[in-house]
Amino acid sequence: MTATATARPGLVYRPPLAWFAALGATWVFVLVTLGAFTTSIDAGMAFPDWPLSNGSVNPKGWLGDLAMFAEHSHRLTGAVMGFITIILAVWLWRRESRAWVRRLGWSALAIVIVQGLIGGKRVLLDSLSVPGFEMTLGQMLRIPHGILAQVYVCVLILIAAALSRGWIEQTAPVSRGVRRAGLVCVLLLLVQLTIAATMRHNHAGLAIPTFPLSTAEGGLLPASWDYRITLNFAHRAMAAVLTVALLWFAVRIWRDAGAGVSLKSGASVMVGLLALQILLGAHVIWQLREPHVTTGHVVVGALLLATTVWLTARAHRDAIGSPASPA
Fold first, then answer.
1. Max CA-CA distance within the chain?
2. Which residue ranges make up each domain of the chain?
3. Are 273 and 303 in contact (CB under 8 A)?
């Protein structure tokens, strides 16, 4: 079955707004990439002040120092992302008929503001120790900063999907089973990314230094356990669960009579990203967290989440596509 043009009353495709939303959904991956690379080379404290960097928007020597370049570029990209989100939220408020899409715009704006504040406090509170913990309060804030970034990606992808021509002008109803499978996969991915952020910022990426098995002797389980090893093993176990779940979701889409070419192609992209993510995860261990490989693993994880969210949103299009929908 192919998609047909069935734009609903009250839904109007607005190319400038749709393309601007797509720009925001693209730019966020520049931000994620720079943030991941900054963390991978441990450059988060290249500048001890905030919101300026060494008291300037153009700090001396930042283009010639890798750590300074990574951190300051991340800050500048975040500022641009903030301006994009402000424009998008106001534009949606003025021009979009669907209340749930307008609410997504305001949600994106709230998240980007909170993200900026958390990022700033991560720097300003870096020296504040917390009794009973190895990390300072500022270092702890890296974890919610990383988790909220993934939620922000989801919101921007949802907005871009809802404004796209395919959403407005086409429909390809899929089964309830496909929709449920998508929701399950999105939730599992968010759980996995939460574990990953906690593991990453607790320096537990190499707590189990062998892959795919957990010991040099070929054991499936680690020979000993502590907090970091538990985080690392949980990340591996959830990766196995996600592999099964995402393949199940893809097969459901491929076999569904209502899924159009775009959905089936998207499912193929999702499976390709899954394979690449597993390969990068293995190389993170084998290459002892080489910064470029580690950054790639984070970015592909975000792309996998974005693709799964997009597929799930499109699968729900006919359930939440009307202007009056309370979704």
1. 64
2. 11-170, 172-327
3. yes
Query: Cα 249 to chain center, whole Å?
Result: 19
Rounded to whole angstroms, how far apart are CA atoms 285 and 121?
Answer: 31
- Give the pLDDT confidence of 159-217 residue by residue, as tens digits: 999 999 988 877 668 899 999 999 999 999 999 999 999 999 999 999 999 999 999 99
CA 156 to chain centre: 10
Calculated CA dihedral for residues 86, 188, 31, 130, nearest 10 degrees: 100
Residues 132 and 294: their CA atoms lie apart, in Å, by 29
Spatial neighbors of 323 by CB under 8 A, at least 6 apart, are 8, 9, 10, 11, 97, 98, 99
Decide if 115 contacts 145 (C-beta within 8 A): yes
What is d(CA 214, CA 106) in angstroms, rounded to the nearest whole number?
Answer: 44
What are the tens digits of pLDDT across the range 208-222? Answer: 999 999 999 999 999
Q: Quick one: 105 exposed, middle or buried, by C-beta within 10 A (0-12, 13-18, 19+)?
A: buried
What does pTM read for this prediction?
0.92
